[in-house]
Design brief:
Layout: E1 2-6, H1 11-22, E2 26-31, H2 39-48, E3 61-62, E4 67-71, H3 77-87, E5 91-94, H4 108-128, E6 133-139, H5 163-182, E7 186-191, E8 194-195, H6 204-213, E9 217-221, E10 227-228, E11 231-232, H7 233-244, E12 266-271, E13 277-278, H8 279-290, E14 295-299, H9 314-320, H10 328-355
């Protein structure tokens, strides 16, 4: 099967592309490689997946065999349309987006460009390309001010607390419109705090490990009174692939008050660990993996943040057999091991270049 995966220089997309290649799919990866965070990390992910970053040219496919890559901004509608016409993809897994809750307070236009205009272009290309299934990334952030635990896809998500969350809610509404009007099968996945090797530098685990190792103080918000449904990357990848293979069908007997399904071929799932962890327990697990005690500065809740997340994944489990297995006691050490090896390698490479 030929699959387009957007965001393959990113954390989840990188891991997903590697796994789907191993399972025999033909993958075209797409990413704009913007500078929201360390571009070198993104390039190293591509290198780890078998790409030659030095050969990249914007808007041109590179590589051969089961994995090819194109550096492309989703707002470049004409080039995106040409790519779809030329490649005739079977399915699309759309992970590319402007991420980050707090950054949406600083640069809101980036979210409108990538998450709204970019997603619109993906929908149009999927419609005209007769794509068999579009799987796309939503977010647990859509639950906003909802306090009903665990978060259910049947809950209202009409009160977002960040523009990032609002953009993801908009994606779900846009997808339903295309499922209804054009019969495009779409599945949205609300991700819950994904972590693991090759993770994003703006995420808590990365920041905490980096600062604890450097002997710097970490900021813990809401005085540590927070819970997160931390989900290891391997479990997420397994879940995405299961969803990719489970194409939704419309149900005429659907409950009109259930926003997660429809008479159209449309579905929304939570994808998480279904096991919230106290933030301070998370910090203690990091301290154990690093072998060093954290210096902590407790701070108030940040704008756009929420106190707790907890995924009800029962629908996903029932429909696909998804069952995450990785505890933070093994997931966090796996990240710390990668972090030390990766940055040790980068440091050695930098010294080698400096010394000639």
């Amino acid at each position: 099967m030929k699959v387009l995966i957007t965001g393959t220089a990113g954390f989840i997309g990188f891991h997903l592309a590697r796994q789907m290649i191993q399972e025999g799919h033909q993958i075209v990866g797409l990413d704009s490689i913007n500078d929201y965070y360390d571009v070198r990390l993104k390039m190293d992910r591509l290198r780890e997946a078998g790409m030659d970053p030095d050969a990249l040219r914007a808007g041109k496919l590179t590589g051969d065999g089961p994995y090819r890559f194109i550096q492309l901004d989703l707002t470049d509608r004409q080039t995106l349309q040409s790519l779809f016409e030329k490649e005739a993809f079977d399915t699309v897994i759309h992970l590319a987006a402007q991420a980050g809750v707090r950054y949406s307070l600083i640069n809101p236009h980036a979210y409108m460009d990538s998450n709204i205009s970019g997603f619109m272009n993906i929908l149009e290309c999927c419609r005209h390309g007769r794509i068999k299934h579009l799987v796309y990334a939503s977010s647990s952030s859509v639950y906003g001010l909802n306090t009903h635990m665990p978060f259910s896809t049947r809950d209202s998500v009409d009160h977002p607390v960040s523009l990032y969350a609002a953009s993801k809610k908009a994606n779900e509404l846009m997808a339903h419109t295309y499922s209804h009007l054009f019969g495009l099968p779409t599945t949205g996945l609300r991700f819950f705090t994904v972590y693991g090797p090759w993770g994003r530098p703006d995420m808590a685990l990365f920041i905490f490990v980096q600062k604890i190792l450097a002997g710097e103080t970490i900021s813990v918000f809401n005085s540590g009174q927070m819970k997160r449904d931390f989900t290891f990357i391997d479990d997420i990848v397994t879940g995405i692939i299961k969803v990719h293979d489970h194409i939704p069908e419309g149900r005429q007997d659907h409950d009109p008050l259930d926003p997660s399904r429809s008479s159209a071929p449309y579905r929304i799932y939570n994808i998480g660990r279904n096991q919230p962890v106290d933030l301070m327990d998370f910090v203690r697990a990091i301290e154990k993996a690093v072998g060093k005690e954290a210096k902590i500065n407790f701070e108030p809740m940040q704008p756009g943040d929420v106190a707790a997340t907890w995924a009800d994944c029962s629908d996903l489990t029932r429909d696909t057999g998804y069952r995450p297995t990785t505890e933070i006691t093994s997931g966090i050490p796996a990240f710390v091991k990668w972090y030390r090896e990766y940055y040790d390698s980068r440091e050695k490479s930098d010294r080698k270049q400096i010394n000639g």
